[in-house]
Amino acid sequence: MGVVGERIDDDSGFAAPRPPSLRLGLTEGIRGTLRMGTLPLAMPWLSLAPRGQAHGVLVLPGLLAGDPSTHVMRRYLHHLGHLAWGWRLGRNIGPSSAILDGMVDVLGALADRTGQPVSVIGWSLGGIYARELARLHSGQIRQVITLGSPFNMVDARQSRADPVFRRRAHLHDVSRVPSREQVAQPIPVPSTAVYSRRDGIVAWQSCIAPESALHQNVEVRCAHLGFGVDPATLWLLADRLAQPRRPEQRQPFRPPTLLRQLYPTR
């Protein structure tokens, strides 16, 4: 599943067919855990984040993860007033028929419950699902936010998770899995790609796309396993969810002055 082609450490966004450094990969777990430890200190200012119009938010987990992995994120979004649902489909084993059909059912149920289009947040593989849902069911989706999702991958070597994904290929409905070229195509709803140059699982270059009136890339500083508990990412989610429903009324993400250091500018 995948992204762009480039040279590592090149700011052009043109991605090389290799994964992040081994150092980043080996420290993923500890870095994600340490980032979660910053949440208590961050909650006072996170509680001041924009709220906007409350609406339904569907949160899709990464490969081999389930709803427990997105609990902190969803709890924060509930605190802001949104109706945040997990996907309720157990562990994410890849695009099986049950998962592909189940996501459509959950999306429809949440849209019916709220009576309006739903924002969809997808972490890693979940972000690729979110974009494909938007491609097929744009009328039910308000916007898509991807967290470290390699939707623009050009080579499997850009992801350390690819061997794990391939080992479960016999469970996947390959007749419904789009090609890398199809996955990388723009989607018809507003989208935000959140990425980190400190990602130790997927090459950050595979997680971004050319910016447009409907798409923006935003960099944060966290491990791949830390997106769901990273204060800067949580603030960004609040800001994007607070944007008006009509695409022409949306504004690009610009962090408040006091938080600018949390969002690297390249």
How would you characterize the overall build of this protein?
The chain is an alpha/beta fold and 266 residues long. 31% of the residues lie in helices and 13% in strands. It contains 9 helices and 6 strands. A 6-stranded parallel beta sheet has the order 2-1-3-4-5-6, sandwiched between helices.
Which key features would you list for this structure?
single chain, 266 residues, six-stranded parallel β-sheet, disordered N terminus
Global mean pLDDT: 93
Structural class: alpha/beta
Q: What kind of sheet is the major sheet?
A: 6 strands, parallel
Kindly state the number of beta strands: 6
> How much of the polypeptide forms β-strand, as a percent range?
5-15%
The 3D shape can be described as: globular
Poorly predicted ranges: 1-15
Helix/strand order, N-terminal first: HHHEHEHEHEHHEEH
Distance between the termini: 26 Å
Radius of gyration: 17 Å
Query: Helical amount among residues, as a percent range?
Result: 25-40%
Strand order of the largest sheet: 2-1-3-4-5-6
Number of helices: 9
